[in-house]
Each structure stands twice: as C-alpha cells, then as structure tokens.
Amino acid sequence: MPYSPTSSSPSRPWTLAIVNQDPLDKAYLRYHVGEAAAATQKFIQAYVDENARVTGAYRFYAAVVDVRGESHASFTYCEDQGKAYDMYLNPKKIDKTAVTKNSYVLYSTKLSKNADGVWVVEQMSSERGSESCQP
Q1: Is 97 buried (19+), middle (13-18) or exposed (0-12) by CB count in 10 A?
Q2: Segments in the chain forming alpha helices (H)
Q3: Kind of pairing, strands 104-113 and 119-128?
Q4: pLDDT tens-digit profile of 39-51?
Q5: Which of 115, 114, 116, 38 is nearest to 73 (CA)?
Q6: For 69, left (φ over 0), alpha (ψ -120 to 50), or beta?
Q7: CA distance linking residue 3 with residue 43, whole number of Å
Q8: pTM for the structure as a whole
Q9: What is the pLDDT of residues 18-37, one digit of tens each?
Q10: Rounded to a whole number, what is the distance in angstroms from the first to the last CA of the chain?
Q11: What is d(CA 26, CA 10) in angstroms, rounded to the nearest whole number?
C-alpha cells in the first residue's frame, strides 16, 4: 500500500484516523473540507480495508506559508518517509521498505479560514520523489 496521499492535511489528523481505523474520525473532519475531506476519507478507508495502519517516524521540513488576505493561504512542506512504514494488523507485519528518492514527498495545500476562525484544508496535492525535497 503506498503511503503518500494525494489529499490530506498538513496537521496530520488523518494519521490518527488511520491508527484508529476510523474513516470518519472527527479530528481530520474538523480540518478538512470539500475535496480534501472526500479524498482523505477514501485514503483512510483504503487502510481500513487492508486492516493496516502507519507506524514509524516522519520528518517534516522546508515549510513555507503564504497568507493571502485574512482568510486564504497556501502551505507547502516536505516529508521524509524513510522511517515510516505500513503495518498490517492481522497477522501483524511491518512492511519495511528501503529508502529511495520516492521516500521524499512535497505537499502543497490550499487553506481557508472557516466561520469559526479555524484554518481548514480545501485542496492538497503531493509529489513523491520531488527534487526540492531530496536530502
């Protein structure tokens, strides 16, 4: 199962939803709307269907925030997935993969501030193996 979602959240509440095996987890739904929420639910459901979760360590770096006015922003960042793995729950097995160029992912998000003043993810894309994220 590939780990990099094409829609998710920079705050990573969807990781908790995967660990909890709950594609309707309230944490990610608080920070995802529209297209981002629908795509994230599908991504989480794929882990639930495989009876899998994530384990290991993630490193985030090269974060850039661009605020546009009072209610819109973009957020880009890199993720090092070199020590992050899928763990299948029954039977319990960790799928340890070698670190490659594709272990480094660039995420780009569009955010807006909702009526409660909370920044939410509207759209997100990822580029696995991005040159700008390579060590």
Answers
A1: middle
A2: 13-19, 26-31, 34-49
A3: antiparallel
A4: 989 989 999 999 9
A5: 114
A6: left
A7: 9
A8: 0.83
A9: 888 999 998 889 999 999 99
A10: 24
A11: 16
